[in-house]
Design goal:
The protein is 48% helix and 11% strand. It is an alpha/beta fold and 733 residues long. It folds into five domains: 199 residues, P-loop containing nucleotide triphosphate hydrolases (Rossmann fold); 180 residues, P-loop containing nucleotide triphosphate hydrolases (Rossmann fold); 95 residues, Winged helix-like DNA-binding domain superfamily/Winged helix DNA-binding domain (Arc Repressor Mutant, subunit A, Orthogonal Bundle); 82 residues, HRDC domain (DNA polymerase, domain 1), CATH 1.10.150; 103 residues, ATP-dependent DNA helicase RecQ (Arc Repressor Mutant, subunit A, Orthogonal Bundle), CATH 1.10.10.
Length: 733
């Protein structure tokens, strides 16, 4: 029977996989491959991409060579395939995890015709011994999985992937099917050109995942928010992505400390540990996997209910790929990303440290797209789909934070006209950041080298900041007034619609951008970090706590701010701590302060909760992991040994200001430090007495700026900070 016949294909689908019908483009893709055509498949995560090469492999003569980037992914795919088909060895992998006898058994199965799918890494495909073996094999076709790894513009670029075509040429001709869940038009072109399949049949499925809710939050107390979010969804599966191994370990530990079944996953763990943790997550022995991007490629868990990015990824492709692991069963999936511009600068430094000039430029452009997405107030679904070359024609999706909480809009006719005029003035030959520099009147090296500072449009939009003009660029792209050229990538060009707009400008509404300048990015995963800014607090309880603070401060003959600051009381009015241990979860409340001053506060909260029948969810109380800052331990020990602050700073390669910040944090949380030995050498005795007197009698808060205003110009900020440290340590700790 013709293996492309519809009836035959449906019967094979039922026989091998138990499905009655194909979904989306699956049948057309399979028939294209069976007809012997090179085939390019762009299909979002969870849409049945693997079946597009698995079914043809099962019904074709010979063995399909499946190129896959990760050992864990190969194992997952082979295990998955063997669960459908009873024949032993129907799918196998050939990689470094096999010993000599196991590798020989795999080869024997292939030569005997038992194996229909052989998974190999691109490095293994180029190996001389493997090439010699594969020349003996009848190859039905080559499947290049995760094909975006070929492109330098892709989010998981693997140089070995660019050598696949050379290996295929050495092995002999057979159809190629390249598959990926994420590819911009630029990446798609790069993949097809590298694999020499520019004339391939192309199948692009929609990138729209209507069941996913997209949200970007300011990165302030992100660790606390993640813990609370996970606790409120006990029993639900989720993935949290972090940039570094240290963050993965710390956040997973914090989640476990708060009763969330969590496991870490990163490249620093042994292969056995990674495999065990992955299996536990898949078998629901753990609810939350905290991971670097080493986790997730090809993970087939349909009921992941949330994907959280503690750190933003390096590209929108990476973001889409990772968020795509939520809601693969078609039910609700929430995708939350924590964003800070400072984090993006850190990411740029990390990615550009050892890269070539070209790689650095690519990285900067990809990161700029991520920042533009995060800071935009436009529909996130519309932004994502536009990035991948797909139109979303609805005005809004009502399933992202920007649609459910829309921002104000402004009339944008003049702004768009200026942007498009500038693009024309530079003859559509430069990227968007260059255009923005011209509009804002920034005579950068590139602007001056091109003499673009002499253009009439130079500086005409200097009254608006860079973020505003970047938003105008993004919205002009969405309105199809401009486009970015694929080759070379990034050059802004006008569309016919844009030229018509310039000829006859008309009213156009533009959304404003979000301001993330308050985000430091310095979140404290231990739970003892920056001020609590999340949501509202119980204002009635806050007022009552404030009254207790005033009363207790009079009883103890201390200034209120010496005991607890307003941010600590606000946290109490959010968390409702009823024990001394829970009180330590609040900002600025260490064990010492909780023990010394906490009793009347937790008693008030307990009474308040009981009288008002408040269902105090333990989900809202985040326990803090012991702070493990090596700097803080070093500083405390150094102060005990009376070492100068400058020497402490030098030993840790810190500024003196950084050391003082650490000391202030230590003292504020309730630890007593004696820095008299240092103050005696730095501050005149009478000035110190005046400052201590100010904090004891006049001060209404511990503000350094208020102290400087009251004390006069003869006092320096450093002197005031040292005096405040001494005062708080002696009186409050």
């Amino acid at each position: 029977m013709d293996n492309t016949d519809d009836t035959y294909l449906r019967s094979c689908l039922k026989k091998f996989f138990g499905f009655d019908t194909f979904i989306g483009n699956q049948k057309a893709i399979i028939r294209s491959l069976l007809y012997g055509k090179d085939t390019f498949v762009l299909m979002p995560t969870g849409s049945g991409k693997s079946l597009c090469y698995q079914l043809p492999a099962l019904i074709s003569e010979g063995t399909a060579i499946v190129v896959s980037p990760l050992i864990a992914l190969m194992k997952n795919q082979v295990d998955h395939m063997c669960s459908f088909v009873l024949e032993e060895g129907i799918a196998s992998f050939l990689n470094s995890t096999l010993n000599r006898a196991e590798a020989q058994q795999v080869k024997d199965n292939v030569l005997q015709g038992k194996t229909k799918m052989l998974y190999v890494a691109p490095e293994a495909l180029a190996n001389e011994d493997n090439l010699a073996f594969l020349r003996k094999v009848k190859i039905s076709f080559y499947a290049i999985d995760e094909a975006h790894c070929i492109s330098e513009w892709g989010h998981d670029f693997r140089p070995e992937y660019r050598k696949i075509r050379s290996s295929v040429n050495l092995l002999g001709s057979a159809p190629i099917i390249a598959l990926t869940a994420t590819a911009t038009p630029k990446v798609q072109h790069d993949i097809q050109r590298n694999l020499d399949m520019l004339h391939a049949a192309v199948f692009r499925s929609s990138f729209n995942r209507p069941n996913l809710f997209y949200e970007v939050r300011p990165k302030v107390d992100a660790a606390k928010e993640i813990v609370r979010y996970a606790k409120q969804r006990e029993g639900q599966s989720g993935i949290v992505y972090c940039l570094t191994r240290k963050e993965v370990e710390s956040l997973s530990e914090l989640l476990c400390l708060n009763g969330v079944r969590s496991l870490p996953y990163h490249a620093g763990l042994s292969p056995a540990t990674r495999s065990t943790n992955q299996d536990k997550f898949l078998m629901e022995e753990a609810d939350v996997m905290v991971a670097t991007i080493a986790f997730g490629m090809g993970i087939d868990k349909p009921d992941v209910r949330f994907v959280i990015h503690y750190d933003m990824p390096k590209s929108l492709e990476g973001y889409y790929q990772e968020t795509g692991r939520a809601g693969r069963d078609g039910h609700e999936g929430r995708c939350i990303a924590f964003y800070s511009p400072k984090d993006m600068h850190r990411l740029e430094k990390l990615t550009c440290t050892k890269a070539s000039a070209t790689e650095q430029e690519i990285s900067r452009q990809l990161l700029a797209e991520v920042s533009a997405y995060a800071e935009s107030t436009l529909c996130r679904r519309k932004l994502l789909l536009s990035y991948f070359g797909e139109d979303y024609n609805e005005e809004k999706c009502d399933n992202c934070d920007n649609c459910t909480n829309p921002s104000s809009a402004v009339e944008g006719q003049e702004y768009v006209r200026l942007l498009l005029s500038t693009v024309c003035a530079v003859r559509e030959s430069v990227r968007d950041d260059h255009v923005v520099s011209i509009i804002r009147g920034e005579a950068t090296v590139h602007v001056r080298a091109s003499n673009h500072h002499e253009l009439d449009v130079f500086g005409q939009g200097q009254d608006k900041d860079k973020r505003f003009w970047s938003s105008v660029v993004k919205q002009s792209l969405l309105h199809k007034l401009a486009k970015k050229d694929v080759e070379p990538y990034g050059q802004l060009q006008l569309t016919e619609k844009g030229r018509a707009f310039l000829a006859q400008p008309h009213s156009i509404s533009l959304a404003s951008s979000r301001d993330f300048s308050h985000c430091t990015g310095d979140d404290e995963i231990s739970g003892g970090g920056g001020k609590w800014h999340s949501g509202g607090y119980d204002r009635e309880l806050f007022t009552m706590l404030k009254n207790v603070l005033v009363s207790e401060s009079r009883r103890c003959k201390l200034k209120p701010f010496v005991m607890f600051q307003d941010t600590s009381l606000q946290d109490m009015a959010i968390l409702y701590p009823t024990t001394i241990e829970e009180l330590q979860s609040c900002h600025g409340v260490g064990a010492g302060k909780a023990q010394k001053f906490g009793k009347p506060f937790v008693e008030l909260v307990a009474k308040y909760v009981k009288e008002r029948g408040i269902e105090r969810s333990q989900d809202m109380v985040v326990k803090s992991a012991p702070h493990k800052s090596a700097n803080k331990v070093f500083i405390i020990h150094s102060i005990d040994r009376k070492i100068d602050m400058e020497d402490i700073a030098s030993a840790k390669k810190l500024r003196l200001d950084d050391v003082l910040l650490e000391i202030e944090a230590i003292v504020s949380s309730g630890t007593k430090l004696n820095i008299d030995y240092y103050i005696e050498r730095q501050v005149e005795e009478d000035k110190l007495a005046d400052m201590l007197e100010y904090f004891a009698t006049e001060a209404q808060s511990d503000s350094v700026q208020e102290a400087l205003a009251a004390l006069g110009s003869s006092y320096t900020e450093t002197e005031v900070r040292l005096a405040r440290i001494k005062f708080l340590s002696e009186n409050g700790n």
